[in-house]
Design brief:
With 292 residues, this protein is mainly alpha-helical. 66% of the residues lie in helices and 0% in strands. The protein is built from eleven helices and no strands. The chain has helices at 2-20, 46-64, 81-89, 91-103, 106-137, 142-147, 154-157, 159-173, 196-221, 232-252, 259-286. The longest helix is centred in the middle third of the chain and has 32 residues, at 106-137.
Length: 292
């Protein structure tokens, strides 16, 4: 079921990006990106190079396991599901770093450096975007967080947290305007040296990560599977695809960010906003606002 959900998510992402990305967009992970794959590498570390896409796909599959499409349609309802998701989804960063270093080419190694710097930029504000929903639901379980939104979706109680999640989610999924590790300036980084089955695995992993991040956003802020008339899994997929569309569309409206600008944005703007959101949610909880 998890593998099927991952493949479905990757397909939905590919279809969405074909519609929304223009050929001139700075976005190396889109379905339309054309890269010149250099398959003959002179000083490659085969173990690291091959481990990269497998590690990335493994991480996205593990993350998909805790996404509830309905109350009874989930790979595993872990009591620490959200924390688990935060950890395993960033196996994608590890995979890119492994392949970039293992390929031992100038552009691939630059991709490795950029992905690690991008992780530093988004990891703290992204964590703060999670904290507000966790505080209000009083649980790390993805099922419990959705059940806590039976009345009011958390987006109405913490719009700052939702906006923060969209920005940091784009950073974490390496989409425009935060696609520096796959920038055309470095010939799309590791994607330029990956062909055959590796290119396919990278495509599934990098498409699946956007789906997984959007799905977690639906869990944290948009009430999960809750909705009238339609079956719960249909509502969940519609919300996820809608959030993916919003994220990708907003990303294409902004000029590409360099790594330095991402770090500046995170530490000067996103982290202070995240702290304000946490303080506001703490106040609302003390006032008795939110799920009982």
């Amino acid at each position: 079921m998890v593998v099927g959900a991952l493949i479905l998510g990757a397909l939905l992402t590919s279809l969405l990006e074909r519609k929304l990305y223009r050929p001139e967009d700075e976005q190396g992970t889109s379905a339309n990106a054309k890269v010149n794959r250099q398959l003959e590498l002179l000083h490659v570390d085969r173990w690291l190079f091959l481990a990269g896409p497998i590690t990335a796909l493994f991480g996205v599959a593990l993350a998909t396991a805790v996404i509830p499409f309905s109350p009874n349609l989930i790979g595993s309802d872990l009591g620490i599901g959200v924390f688990y998701f935060i950890v395993v989804i960033d196996f994608v960063v590890l995979g890119i770093a492994l392949s970039g270093w293992g390929a031992n080419t100038e552009n691939a190694i630059e991709s490795c450096y950029r992905i690690v710097a991008q992780l530093v930029a988004y990891v703290v504000p992204l964590g703060l975007a999670y904290v507000g929903a966790i505080m209000m639901a009083r649980s790390l379980s993805t099922i419990d967080i959705v059940n806590a939104q039976t009345g009011w979706w958390f987006i109405w109680l913490q719009p700052i947290g939702f906006a923060l999640y969209i920005v940091t989610g784009l950073m974490q999924s390496y989409r425009a305007p935060f696609a520096e590790p796959f920038s055309s300036k470095i010939n799309h980084g590791i994607l330029s040296v990956s062909g055959g089955w590796m290119a396919l695995v990278w495509r599934i992993a990098l498409s699946g990560v956007l789906f997984a991040i959007a799905a977690m956003g639906v869990i944290l802020y948009l009430g999960g599977w809750h909705g009238p008339w339609l079956p719960a899994p249909i509502w969940f997929l519609l919300k996820t695809y809608g959030l993916m569309t919003l994220m990708v569309w907003l990303g294409t409206r902004v000029k590409p960010f360099s790594t330095a600008r991402m770090l500046k944005l995170a530490w000067r703007t996103l982290i202070p906003l995240g702290m304000i959101n946490v303080l506001v949610i703490g106040g609302l909880i003390l006032l008795g606002v939110g799920p009982k």
